Amino acid sequence: QQLEVAYANQIRYRLTPNVQPGVEFFGRFGEVGSFSYSNGQHNFGPGVFGFIELSDGFSLKYEFTYLVGISGPTPSQTFKWLTEFEHKF
Predict the structure, then answer these.
(1) DSSP string spanning 24-37?
(2) Which pLDDT band, with edges at 50, 70 and 90, does 71 fall under?
């Protein structure tokens, strides 16, 4: 098994807890010992993030991001959609 190096980050502006515009970037450099920017996958793009209280103890977290590939083997365009349903005990 090989060890791989990757990164992920988001920068958000908290307009309200429900609507947070921002940018997201992430990617991977490959296996330790053979790092390569041009052969790794790297994405960057704008997004909208948020957190909605549904009722007492229940909430919904969402992320919608349009990503552009900024290195050779990365898809040129990607749409990322993430939703989480949370229940506080």
Answers:
(1) EEEEEEEETTS--T
(2) confident
Whole-model pTM: value is: 0.77
- In the DSSP assignment, the letter for residue 76 is S
Q: What is the pLDDT of residue 20?
A: 96
- CA atoms of 27 and 64, how far apart (whole Å): 17
| Percentage of the chain exceeding pLDDT 70 | 93
Q: Rounded CA gap, 60 and 68, in Å?
A: 26
3-class secondary-structure state, position 61: strand
The pLDDT of residue 59 is: 93
Taking Cα atoms as reference points, which of 62, 40, 43, 42 lies closest to residue 51?
62
> Residue 24's closest CA among 5, 7, 3, 1?
7
Q: How many CA atoms lie within 13 A of 45 on its CB side?
A: 21
Q: What is the amino acid identity at position 41?
A: Q
